[in-house]
Amino acid sequence: MENSFLPEDLRHNVEHRMFNIIKIKKVVSYVIGLIIFFLMVFFLFFNAPADFVSGTVVRIEQGASLRNVSLQLKEDHVIRSRLVFEAFVIIYGGEKHIMYSDYLFENKLPVWQIAKRISKGEHRTAPIVITIPEGFDTVQIANTFASKLSNFNKNKFLLEATKLEGYLFPDTYFFFSTANEKDVLKSMSENFEKKIEPFRLLIKISGETEKDIIIIASLIEREAKGDTDRGFISGILWKRLAIGMPLQVDAAPGTYKVKGLPKNPIANPGLQAIKSAINPLKSPYLYYLHDKNGVVHYARTFLEHKQNVLKYLTR
Fold this sequence. Notes:
mainly alpha; two-stranded antiparallel sheet
């Protein structure tokens, strides 16, 4: 009403300014409303739940579907919205190949980062280091893995591994905690193939079969105490075979009365034993024994061998 007493041009100017102020206030209110809305959406759907526990480990089993995974993450308080998580997994292209493993979530993460990690298999958990010594048989291997991997089924492993004795390469392996007996068999068998491949031509040139080489190598692995012993013992065992003498290997009791090689390897040899089986050292020796300290003593004749027995084993 007061503006009616103002000159026309001044009154219009005042009204225009007031209109602009009202407009600016509306825009500011609208922007603030949008910010509040997006903050609410972020905290309600995108941000980690308030009851998330730092260091949460979520185990995603093999064959789990996207729905299974989203439910598990929701129940473990890693995500707020299953729907939003699933949408981001689809965006990242991970819905058809969920990477099963143990996933470590050290800190709170927005849902799109959770989805990305699941889609790409970024588990962030340290692998379990397991060393299988040279000369371990399948039972010893089974016991070792059973003590380290919760999903490892010892009985199922042995059902398959028994026929693979000698062909499970002893080495240091790195497995995630979700690994099972199938994963172990696959890794150890593939490692054997990888390690033996460069020697297959040499085996062929030697005139011996690969199976016989592995059997001899398994005997060497159980009998020898070092590289030199491996070479000498390899030569002695091949020499005994050549002259029709029983192998008489303590690690394989059946070889004392039966001539020839055991039907199968008695353990899983390492690379040095396999090399020694392929390239035996020539020597005049035909006998050997281990003293009480594990040192190997060699003899040319049975008489010398009996003297070594008296000297090193009866005192």
